[in-house]
Amino acid sequence: MLKNALFLNLLKPRADDDENEYVDVTHDKIERALRSLMGDVYSYSDENEQEPLKELFQLCILLNRREMSFVLWEVMKEKLSAAISATRILKSLSKRTEIKEYKEELLEHADEYETRSIGILSQCYFDDEEKTGNLLIRRLKQWGGLTSLQIAVDAKNRSFVSHPAVQALLSKIWMGP
């Protein structure tokens, strides 16, 4: 229960709610929890209802269910943006707990997704630099029209943003082709 207590507290409507009170987990409350963890970058649209895999993945991330999140991540279409978002959510969750062991566990989980996102980016960049640039700035319907780069920048994911693929894209945008 300890692992889920942080997530369940995000779902409570008020801070003065009884700690032992049953928390009704609804789609709207999960959306609100994600928005509080990801900030303004998180955008939900009705199109997401057609993405049950993404929603299950996000729930596994919120509950810090590492193995299940990796299984779902492996079959997702948008692995790069999912990994970047998972990193953001897990780091935000870690800031909201004062339990050292749980904080460390969340940060380890976040590091694994950060490593995966950088691995995908490196492989793409090695295979085709131009397509990698397009991948970074392509608007993703299932992520509210955001780009992978927007999610990473908002998450202050310095490792991702400092990657040569991102730097090449930013130079190209800034200086022109």
UniProtKB/TrEMBL annotation:
Where, per UniProt, does this protein localize? Membrane
| GO cellular component assignments | membrane
Indicate yes or no for the key word RNA-binding: no
Cited Pfam families: TRPM2
What is this entry's stated membrane topology?
Multi-pass membrane protein
Ranges for domain TRPM-like: 20-163
The answer to whether UniProt assigns keyword Transmembrane helix to this entry is: yes
Alphabetic keyword roster = Membrane, Transmembrane, Transmembrane helix
Matching InterPro entries: TRPM, TRPM-like
Q: Where does it primarily localize? A: membrane
Q: What is this protein called?
A: TRPM-like domain-containing protein
